[in-house]
Amino acid sequence: MSTDQVFANARIVTADEVFTGSVAVRGDRIVGLDRGAAVPAGATDLGGEWLLPGFVELHTDNLEKHVGPRPGVRWPMLSAILAHDAQIAAAGITTVFDAVAIGVSEKDKDFLRRDMLQEAVNTLLRIQTDGLAKAEHFLHLRCEVANEGVPDMVAPLLANPLARLVSLMDHTVGQRQFVDEAKFREYYMGRFGFNDAQMDAMIARGKVDAALYSDVNRRAIVAQCVELGVPMASHDDATLEHVEESLALGLTIAEFPTTVVAAQAARDGGMRTIMGAPNVVRGGSHSGNISAAELARRDLLDCLSSDYVPASLGHAAFMLHDAEGIDLPDAVAKISLNPARMIGLDDRGQIAIGKRADLVRIALADRIPVIRQVWRAGERVI
């Protein structure tokens, strides 16, 4: 069988094992796996470095940092998205779901998310269709259900061919991530520079909006997604009641459950769980919620998301292996095979014959991954 590329003398991480060997690629597919350190003529010698499947990222907020690099600064959208794409690929991510926020109120001073939405969606589609992207991009529609009019905003976006995942969020005080009002105040006072009076007004307004809109919006968005067959995720489930609501609505993914109770209930109900890779790297949640490592130890962690630090994915996978004793194939599956399966992308996420040739060459420095090279569909992008 003819091949276009052979990567030899690599420490290969498959879905089941780790071995030294070679991977043969023809076109965009993996066509051969062999054991041994031999380097055939014409092969690329990886010098014993690691070869992992390309990472699959289901939830990243990284795009916003490039569109608004400083308060009051709006960067040109195409330039911002190309910079975001390059950073994503350089982190070993070959498939990325860019999370865009829908329903953030201008009263909360978050103009960036509101104003960037449509232009960002259009530009992501452009770099994808014009062959400008290093990673493959999809849309993750983050719906703030406590905001008026969200279902009407979601409807046209669901028609976008990149829209592949919807999550239902409620970031009002007393809900899910922010059950603790003190944490809510700390986060938003730091983000927006509000004083106590402004925070009081925001909290009171949020409680009214949640009562008026959260339930009706949640059900309306679910109806749209069911009709189109778009997978849905809950967000920051904290209680058994939260998970029961998610299951009743047909949600299949639990993003960032905040307690063991919620994570266990999600698993018992057949949902798959996502936690933040920064949570693993930092040793805990920045919001004071359950640690991702704790859920991993309890076998309640299916997938990691880089969330706000793209480079955290590979780092967290090796940390789960080194610090928590999780088999490396299992740890790597949490950033590749598992998220791919959760979203129905069965052509990628593992180094196996017939799968797409999404590959990441890695060296380790103090057990921190150094991304050497990245291939997407057989084409080198980093």
Walkthrough of the structure:
- With 382 residues, the chain is an alpha/beta fold.
- The chain has a single domain (54-347), classed as TIM Barrel, CATH 3.20.20.
- It has 13 helices and 16 strands.
- The chain has helices spanning 62-67, 77-90, 111-129, 150-158, 181-192, 196-228, 240-249, 260-268, 277-282, 292-297, 312-324, 328-333, 337-342, and strands at residues 5-13, 18-26, 29-35, 44-45, 50-53, 55-60, 93-102, 136-144, 163-169, 232-235, 253-255, 272-276, 303-305, 359-365, 368-376, 379-380.
- The strands form two sheets. Strands 1, 2, 3, 4, 5, 14, 15 and 16 form an eight-stranded mixed β-sheet that branches. An eight-stranded parallel β-sheet has the order 6-7-8-9-10-11-12-13.
- Helix 2 crosses helix 3, helix 4 crosses helix 6 and helix 7 runs parallel beside helix 8.
- The model has no long low-confidence stretch (mean pLDDT 91).
